[in-house]
Structures are given as C-alpha cells and as structure tokens.
Amino acid sequence: MTQEFSLQHIIREPKIKSDNAPVLIMLHGYGSDENDLFSFASELPEELFIISVKAPYKMQPYGNAWYAIHWDNNDGKFSDDLQAIKSRETIKDFIGEVIKNYPVDPENINLLGFSQGSILSYAVALSYPEIINNVVALSGYVNQGILKDGFENNDFSNLDFYCSHGSVDQVIPVDWARKTKPFLDNLNIKNAYSEFPVGHGVAPQNFFELKEWLKNRI
C-alpha cells in the first residue's frame, strides 16, 4: 500500500483496460473486512474498476467497523455518530485519492455498501452528491444524524439509488429501511426499493436485480 491512500483496499481491474473506467467502491458491514463484498466482484460487469475498502476501526478479535456501536442498559444499542461522520469524510477523501491514483472516470463513481457500509454510502452520497453517480445500498437505512448540515439544499440530479432489505432482518429492522424511499422521493432523488424474504443478508435474486440495475447505469 502506498502512502497515497487513507484507507486500505483491494482492487479488481476491468477485463478491458481503460484510462477512465467506471469505478465501484465497496463498503463492507460491521465486523467484516474488505474481502467480504469483494467475493461479488467476479460476478459484476467486466468494465468496472472495483475497489473494496477496509473500514478504519479495528475490532477484537477480528473484523473492522466504520463506527462503534455501543450497548447500554437504558437505550439498548446506539451508533457513535461522531465516528460515523469521521468515516464519511475519510471515504470522501479516499474517493479523491482513487481518482488521482487509478485510471478511473471521475464522472462515474459508484458505491455499493452493505449494512454499516450502506449507511455510510447514503451519508457520503447525500452529503456530497456532486462526486457520486449511483449507489447500491443493501440492508441499511438513512441515518440523518450523520448527513452534512444543509444537505437538503444539494443538487441531487445525477444521483440514483438501488435500495434493498430483508423483510425478516433481525439486525436492522425493515421498518427503518421502508422509510428510505419516501425520504429519497421527498428530495426528488431517483431510487428503487426492493424487499426479499431473508434476514440480514443478500438473497440470490437480490444480487441478480442489483447487478442488472448497475449494468444499466454504468
């Protein structure tokens, strides 16, 4: 890893070499690492330059997180929004580093996030829509507490979201995810929302749908 990057990552270059390939940046979930979503890479469109990123906060005994989740006796579990905002900014900076160091198209930056990575994908895209094109947000929700102040005044005309959730998700309640479409609709942001009869994971039909959605937009 060179000194140029603020986040560790692994890459899959496009099958056909290009000086300005569309890029897909993958953001994994809580307690996982960069190898998790990268297992999808071989199934995704060949023209994509794929970058799977490791979250910055180490967990014990293994895995990483974009921000801490705390448990207490009064409120149950809650997110460390200050850490999440710091990660939001780190991801934004990392996108700039990717554009500078890899042969990618700066006008074709796409995110794919799962769970915590999905929550961060929403935060980055809604806070900085000028640098993102398409977002695949799997098993997450919009945490308004980690969006940049004044985000609602942004120009979202280039943004498009594919959002999906498991209808029996035991980690992030489906009711939280169901608020996403009305929220995005209210901001006049292009979006699609799907549910699948699974828990906190990605069903095969979910994967085929997101792959087709992405293929039509890159």
Describe this structure in words.
By secondary structure, the protein is an alpha/beta fold. It has helices at residues 35-38, 81-101, 116-127, 174-178, 180-186, 204-215, and strands at 9-12, 21-27, 49-53, 57-58, 64-65, 69-72, 76-79, 104-114, 134-138, 160-166, 190-196. Strand 6 (69-72) and strand 7 form a beta hairpin.
Determine the structural class based on helices, strands and strand pairing: alpha/beta
The string of secondary-structure elements, in order, is EEHEEEEEHEHEEHHEH
Total strands: the figure is: 11
Number of helices: 6
**What's the arrangement of strands in the largest beta sheet?**
1-3-2-8-9-10-11
Strand content: 25-35%
Any idea what the shape is?
Answer: globular
End-to-end Cα distance: 28 Å
Unreliable runs: none
Helix content: 25-40%
The biggest sheet amounts to:
7 strands, mixed
Indicate the mean pLDDT.
Answer: 94
Q: Indicate the radius of gyration in whole angstroms.
A: 16 Å
Strand and helix map with partners:
Layout: E1 9-12, E2 21-27, H1 35-38, E3 49-53, E4 57-58, E5 64-65, E6 69-72, E7 76-79, H2 81-101, E8 104-114, H3 116-127, E9 134-138, E10 160-166, H4 174-178, H5 180-186, E11 190-196, H6 204-215
Parallel strand pairs: 2-3, 2-8, 8-9, 9-10, 10-11
Antiparallel strand pairs: 1-3, 4-5, 6-7
What descriptive keywords fit this protein?
seven-stranded mixed beta sheet, globular, 218 residues, alpha/beta, two-stranded antiparallel sheet
In summary, what is this structure?
The chain is of the alpha/beta class and 218 residues long. The protein has six helices and eleven strands.
